[in-house]
Write a structure and sequence with these properties.
With 114 residues, the protein is an alpha+beta fold. The chain contains six helices and three strands, in the order ααβααββαα. 51% of the residues lie in helices and 12% in strands.
Length: 114
């Protein structure tokens, strides 16, 4: 997060940190368990390696995820939620429920691979 940025609304802060196409989905996947980069990439099938790397770095910078590097060959890197990241999970669950209710209301097919 840009600490020099001025916000007029707390919603803006939240959207700045977890908004965008991939950050919320990354946090959602990590809410279930610790994952390696390749596991995240498979779960977010349309994300590019460059974009996933960028989003993970921003989430780490903002204190929402941990990045743990194991001294192995080849190197293994795992990502998990921090306490601050875990505090976002209730918001993500509400978003999931809202999306489910919305799809039901418009009679759209349910999404099962989330």
């Amino acid at each position: 997060m840009n600490e020099n940025k001025e916000y007029r609304c707390n919603v803006s802060v939240t959207l700045d940190i977890i908004g965008g196409k991939w950050k919320s989905l990354i946090l959602w996947q990590l809410s279930f368990k610790t994952l390696r980069f390749s596991q995240l990439q498979r779960r977010l099938a349309k994300v590019t390696q460059k974009m996933l790397t960028q989003q993970l770095r921003e989430l780490e910078r903002d204190g929402l995820i941990n990045r743990k590097v194991y001294a192995e060959v080849p190197p293994r890197v795992e990502y998990s939620l921090t306490t601050r990241g875990e505090s976002v999970v209730p918001i993500l669950k509400l978003m999931y429920q809202w999306g489910e209710e919305y799809l039901t209301a418009i009679e759209a097919p349910a999404i099962t691979n989330c």
